[in-house]
Amino acid sequence: MTMPVMEPDLDAGMLRTWAKVIDDGPFSSLCWGERIAFDNPDSLTLLGALAAWTDRVRLVTTVVVPQLHDEVRLAKSLATGDLLSGGRLTVGLGVGGRHEDYRAVGADPAGQTMRSMAERVAVMKRVWAGEKVTDSVLPVGPPPVQHGGPELLVGTIGPKTVRSAAGWASGLAGTTLDLDLAKQNELFDVARDAWAAAGKAKPLLATSFWFAIGEPEAARDQVRRHLLRYMNWIPADIVDAIAPTTGWSGSQDELLQVLRGFAGIGADEVHLIPTSDDIEQVHRVAEVISELNQTTTAGAGAAT
After folding, report:
1. Strand 248-250 relative to strand 204-213: parallel, antiparallel, unpaired?
2. In this predicted structure, what is the pLDDT of residue 297?
3. Which domain holds residue 52?
């Protein structure tokens, strides 16, 4: 479950409540993303709070853009988050999709490349390995709890990006706009092949999509309103045109079938992105996941 960090009028109490409900529920991961030129919370500051507010759930950034940070300071911040969470941190990394975020921090948009990101990842891994990356008395710490640093995922929807990340990532933190299972499985196959060619174990396969549970018209309008706010760099008429087929809306039973479909193509996780800060949406998804887990367990028992 993704935190509602892109919703308006956030406050600490609401974010803490979401974190607690997610941590107490059947969710495997708690996720959040990064933007700069927007009114969402700073991702790395929020990481510290989420580490304190939760005890069980895995914390997943989906995604942090290394080119928007000094890579040594980013490595230190993420190692600190891994320490505070007891080794529960997974870091999704991506190049980002908005030049305005680069310009807001004085970063060159020309650096919005996979090569530039990979170079920064290499530096961060050296920091996490305890190497001195400058002529300092001591290396940059603290050491992360997870040996070699947090698990790294590449945020992507394209095969070229997937192939280029096989050398440094443990898997994918992708996204699907239209929930096309065939296209998603094609991307998963690209990852499986790329990881095998790199001599690595099977990649972790995760995807994400916007969701709204409710009556058809109201739920779809909820998705539309969220997209108009979030996709503020795209003309509103274009967002309105894609809104009817972007993300997912429907009933709990329909969501159950959608999640079964992604499980059927080998997805290890689906990172659901809320389109409202209504905590009832989380409770309703938790009911769906509990039912999914029960039927999966029952099926496994019957097979055994």
Report:
1. parallel
2. 62
3. 12-303
